[in-house]
Design a protein that fits this description.
Elements lengths: L10 E4 L3 E9 L2 E7 L9 H15 L3 H5 L29 E3 L10 E3 L21
Antiparallel strand pairs: 1-2, 2-3, 4-5
């Protein structure tokens, strides 16, 4: 164990990334400030030991735990009623195309189909008896 003497506001470096600063000294208590990367956990020793104890307990395997597991490569649900299977992808929509109607426009190219434009109706003449029918 390395033993160092430090006064208030003095720092100890551990490697290049961990910095320990003496923040305050009151009687028999020393307050430390610790700067470390987020990837390095920093705990009081009693908290660290409690975490280790919990991890050991969680790692213990019981036979009852094995019976509740689903074996690998086993589907968790079958096909839906009516034959629709959610694992089967739907085919992509294919646009309807028709040949290019412009003569002399070079090689025929397929263009997306567009609905025909509505025919314009001539205005009604109230004096024409044929338009009323």
């Amino acid at each position: 164990m390395l033993v160092l003497s430090r006064q208030r506001d003095e720092t100890i470096m551990i490697g290049d990334d961990i910095e320990i600063t003496i923040v305050d000294i009151r009687g028999d208590k020393v307050r430390l400030g610790i700067t470390a990367p987020a990837t390095i956990p920093v705990h009081r020793k009693e908290v660290y030991e409690a975490i280790q104890r919990e991890n050991r307990e969680a790692a213990k395997l019981k036979m009852d735990d094995l019976t509740n597991l689903t074996p690998p490569n086993t589907p968790t649900r079958g096909p839906r009623p009516g034959g629709a299977n959610p694992a089967t992808p739907r085919p992509a929509a294919v646009p309807i195309t028709r040949p290019n109607p412009q003569p002399g426009a070079g090689p025929q190219q397929n263009q997306p189909a567009t609905p025909p434009a509505p025919q314009a109706q001539p205005p009604k003449n109230p004096q024409d008896p044929q338009q009323g029918k």
